[in-house]
């Protein structure tokens, strides 16, 4: 299926919307890094908040102090979560397993 042809105005609007979403996700990751947001709180609103829901779980975890790519990969593998999974796509068991691992 071919992509729809956009007018220049529609394209500009889509680019502006995408940039705003990227900025919002960056702000969310910064809040997690500063300790203003917690992973349980963020994951709790993943189904209702579109910005949180479309953010990759790995990106959220990398925002935590002390969690780099290697530690996040190990954590995701241990909990059975695919690295490309987005927050809204986590099942209840996956979310609980991730939160349990973060507590320990």
Characterization of this structure:
It comes from Pseudonocardia ailaonensis. Keywords: Coiled coil. InterPro entries: IHF-like_H2TH, IHF_actinobact. By secondary structure, the chain is mainly alpha-helical. The protein contains six helices and no strands. It has helices at residues 8-34, 39-44, 50-53, 57-62, 69-79, 92-103. The radius of gyration is 16 Å and the shape is elongated. The termini are far apart. The model has no long low-confidence stretch (mean pLDDT 93).
Annotation keywords:
63% helix; Integration host factor, actinobacterial type; 6 helices; elongated; mainly alpha; IHF_actinobact; 104 residues
Number of contiguous helices: 6
Q: Calculate Rg over CA atoms.
A: 16 Å
- How many β-strand stretches? 0
- Poorly predicted sequence stretches spanning 5 or more consecutive residues: none
Succession of helices and strands: HHHHHH
Question: Would you tell me the overall average pLDDT?
Answer: 93
Principal-axes shape call: elongated
**Structural class by SSE content:** mainly alpha
Helix share bin: 55-70%
Task: Report, as a whole number of angstroms, the end-to-end distance.
Answer: 47 Å
Summarize the biggest pleated sheet.
none
**What portion of the residues fall into strands of 2 or more residues?**
under 5%
